[in-house]
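Quick one, tokens below. Sequence please?
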């Protein structure tokens, strides 16, 4: 007799695994189905070339919720996060180097501008206050503005009271963060161009926007909310790559009784009437469950896995308006030795943090100019990390791996540009050429190169249009609008079908919050005797 589960989770990324772990800890029988041969989704570690292991897609961590680390006891399951020591911006004959050592950073900023050094401390304190104010929203269920139940708005009432109690300056800054561009917001604080450009980079990650586009100041704040060991705006590398996060959550899940299957691609979510009853795999196997949770994005979940003609036309129209507009690519390099930055030669501590190719605001905006017209950036913004400087196990002795996150690489190429399969090598060459401007010996060191295009992210990792956050982090697609108005509470119009991925509140990044909140909501609904009813 075929086993029936309380819940099937589609997708073995970190959010799906998080949902599964919480459900199993509540006594549910849970099956996780992952289409790839390895767990992790975009938070994955793979040995792409013999001896060289890469965080192929996502590559750093900061947003992972502390309550998940604590409640799932991820340290006991092998998770260890190694701190990244600051950000180094190489320039022509100079550099800007901010480290985790506050005194050293202050000395560096004074070298550039006494005014900026003074402003930097005030800015940092203010942004921490803004992050503390908005951070509780990461853990609440968005209200339904179309519903009649006022209880959903109670958490917002508390936030409104807190906002009213903020100093007037803090209120003004919060409004600016919600409305301004990252460049304009930072212009109010700083005068050093490389500093503004490097800080503004956090405002464009996962968006098809430039540093001068309104709304990017909020994305900057979104990334500022990350923390490691209680320190805001701290970034780290998991020992063993980002796949170690997924594997630790998977270990916690299996310890709680979750079954996990890889190479198990879901073809259809099975329905009986208006209710989900299980899934059908690409192999033809049918598996039954009382509830199905999808950590895939809305397009994959509703437009690929649901039988056409099933959805309400108005809901389907909302789904088709949801914006992905992937704009990022990744280049992973296996190196024969250590790179040397021209403006600061030698193997110093500056190689242990992020290396940001963001010399000026104009440089960043010109990179976006290419993307606006359907071309990859010829001189892109690149965020380089050498994880082997903090975790030598990722490569053979004396060798290194270099992770290069690249913006912009628009999913939709202009007519005449060909396809991403045509442009793959040219895109990789543009990235290496840009790096070579600041690291002259890079070409001599490259043993192997992996180029991940937005089309690859869609084909291999099921990220529609290659968007790393399962949809842009723009204000109209956040909170009770994520993924669509009226359906931001993890439930869907199909009874027994829930969403638990980055396309739900509070959004993307290696956070785990969507998976955790969805599971807790589902558990609470069952305990309240409302199991299976769409909200």
């Amino acid at each position: 007799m075929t086993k029936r589960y309380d819940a099937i989770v589609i997708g073995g990324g970190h959010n799906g695994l998080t949902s599964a772990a919480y459900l199993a800890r509540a006594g549910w029988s849970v099956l996780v189905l992952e289409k790839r041969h390895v767990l992790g989704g975009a938070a994955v570690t793979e040995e792409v070339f013999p001896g060289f292991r890469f965080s192929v897609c996502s590559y750093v961590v900061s947003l992972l919720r502390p309550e998940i680390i604590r409640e799932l006891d991820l340290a006991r399951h092998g998770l260890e996060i190694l701190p990244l020591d600051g950000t180094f911006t190489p320039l022509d004959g100079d550099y800007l180097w901010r480290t985790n050592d506050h005194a050293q950073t202050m000395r560096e900023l004074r070298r550039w501008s006494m005014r900026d050094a003074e402003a930097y401390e005030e800015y940092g304190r203010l942004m921490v206050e803004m992050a503390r104010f908005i951070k509780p929203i990461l853990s609440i269920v968005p209200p339904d503005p179309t519903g009649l139940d006022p209880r959903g708005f109670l958490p917002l009432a508390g936030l409104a009271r807190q906002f009213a109690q903020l100093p007037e300056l803090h209120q003004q800054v919060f409004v600016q963060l919600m409305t301004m561009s990252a460049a304009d917001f930072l212009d109010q604080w700083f005068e050093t161009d490389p500093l503004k450009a490097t800080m503004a980079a956090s405002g464009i990650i996962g968006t098809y926007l430039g540093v001068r586009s309104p709304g990017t100041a909020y994305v900057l704040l979104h990334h500022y909310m990350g923390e490691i060991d209680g320190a805001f705006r701290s970034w780290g590398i998991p020992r063993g790559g980002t796949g170690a996060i997924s594997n630790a959550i998977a270990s916690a899940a299996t310890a709680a009784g979750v079954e996990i299957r890889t190479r198990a691609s879901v073809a259809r979510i099975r329905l009986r009437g208006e209710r989900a009853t299980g899934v059908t795999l690409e192999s033809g196997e049918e598996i039954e469950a009382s509830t199905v949770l999808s950590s895939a994005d809305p397009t994959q979940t509703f437009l690929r896995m649901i039988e056409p003609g099933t959805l309400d036309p108005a809901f389907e129209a909302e789904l088709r308006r949801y914006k992905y507009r992937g704009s990022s690519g990744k280049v992973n390099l296996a190196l024969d030795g250590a790179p040397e930055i021209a403006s600061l030669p030698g193997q110093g501590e500056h190689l242990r943090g992020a290396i940001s190719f963001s010399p000026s605001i104009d440089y960043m905006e010109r990179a976006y100019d290419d993307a606006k017209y359907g071309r990859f950036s010829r001189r892109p913004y690149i965020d380089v990390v050498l994880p082997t400087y903090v975790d030598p196990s990722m490569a053979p002795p004396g060798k290194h791996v270099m992770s290069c996150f690249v913006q912009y690489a628009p999913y939709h190429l202009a007519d005449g540009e060909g396809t991403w399969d045509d442009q793959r090598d040219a895109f990789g060459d543009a990235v290496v050429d840009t790096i070579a401007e600041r690291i002259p010996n890079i070409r001599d060191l490259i043993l192997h190169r992996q180029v991940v295009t937005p089309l690859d992210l869609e084909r291999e990792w099921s990220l529609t249009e290659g968007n790393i956050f399962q949809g842009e982090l723009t204000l109209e697609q956040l909170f009770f609008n994520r993924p669509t108005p009226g359906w931001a509470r993890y439930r869907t119009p199909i009874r027994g079908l829930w969403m638990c991925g980055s396309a739900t509140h509070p959004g993307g990044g290696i956070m785990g919050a969507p998976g955790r909140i969805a599971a807790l909501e589902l558990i609470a609904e069952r305990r309240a005797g409302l199991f299976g009813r769409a909200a």
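The radius of gyration is 23 Å. The domain at 4-48+58-81+241-323+471-527 is CATH 3.50.50.60 (FAD/NAD(P)-binding domain).
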